[in-house]
Amino acid sequence: MSTPISTEGTICGTLFIVAAPSGAGKSTLVNALLEREPAISLSVSHTTRPPRPGEQYGRHYYFVERGEFEREVGEGIFLEHAEVHGNFYGTSRKTVQDLLGQGRDVLLEIDWQGAAQIRRTKPDCVSVFILPPSRTELERRLRGRGSDSAEVIERRLRNSRGEIAHAHEFDYIIVNDRFEDALDGLQAIVQAVRLRTALQCQRHEALIRELLAGG
Ligand SMILES: Nc1ncnc2c1ncn2[C@@H]1O[C@H](COP(=O)(O)OP(=O)(O)OP(=O)(O)O)[C@@H](O)[C@H]1O
Ligand SMILES: Nc1nc2c(ncn2[C@@H]2O[C@H](COP(=O)(O)O)[C@@H](O)[C@H]2O)c(=O)[nH]1
């Protein structure tokens, strides 16, 4: 495995991806992870979805009109973008590249289509798929959240089968049954990846020094 180097020659951070069917608990887990691991930067996506009550522009999403989103796609500002549950979502290329280049770990909360696009250009990314413990519990969580209309919930539940079918493409799968266990699992993945990257960097640095010193 390679050590990711930015264009400035500094060691890059790691790109983490967390995906899940709607309602599995991805955002709740990610927010709790960020409290435990505040050095990770969460990328704020652009979306054409209307804001839910309480959602803020720039904090939860950059909410944009469809025309503006299409213009941004044309300008190539997205690292990945996809249509999910009838709305469009995209990740800012510049934000992610700037943060990684500064050596920061970045987390993307995106769907499986976006994850597949990112793997093609950033094969060193680390991807995690969150599963609900059962379909009944997924539906209970979606309805219990109280943020979407019955029609939107039905659509998301219908789409969940197609999303879960891609779980095996991810590096890790976590079942979000008991919340604290799932959170511990997610944090363990992040910590293990960081340790591996640090050890690789040390080995590469040692080899570079040895090769430069040799006659
Ligand atoms: N382990 C858990 N046990 C019980 N409830 C949970 C658990 N994890 C999350 N929840 C609840 O399930 C609901 C859905 O969680 P959340 O909004 O994080 O889902 P999501 O996967 O991010 O969905 P979406 O993709 O639609 O944004 C929330 O009300 C959350 O509090
Ligand atoms: N491919 C992308 N998917 C994204 C992005 N931001 C969010 N999402 C995914 O969309 C669904 C629905 O999200 P919601 O906020 O409307 O519930 C969920 O799976 C998100 O992970 C993105 O930038 N790209």
UniProtKB/TrEMBL annotation:
Residues at which ATP binds: A20, P21, S22, G23, A24, G25, K26, S27
InterPro entries per the UniProt record, alphabetical: GK/Ca_channel_bsu, Guanylate_kin-like_dom, Guanylate_kinase, Guanylate_kinase_CS, P-loop_NTPase
GO MF term set: GMP kinase activity
Stretches assigned to the Guanylate kinase-like domain: 13-191
SMART domains: GuKc
Keyword Lipoprotein: no
Assigned keywords, A-Z: ATP-binding, Cytoplasm, Kinase, Nucleotide-binding, Transferase
CDD domains referenced in this protein's UniProt entry, alphabetically: GMPK (cd00071)
Function in brief: Essential for recycling GMP and indirectly, cGMP.
NCBIfam families from the UniProt entry: guanyl_kin
Protein name per UniProt: Guanylate kinase
Species, as recorded: Dyella acidiphila
Organismal lineage: Bacteria, Pseudomonadati, Pseudomonadota, Gammaproteobacteria, Lysobacterales
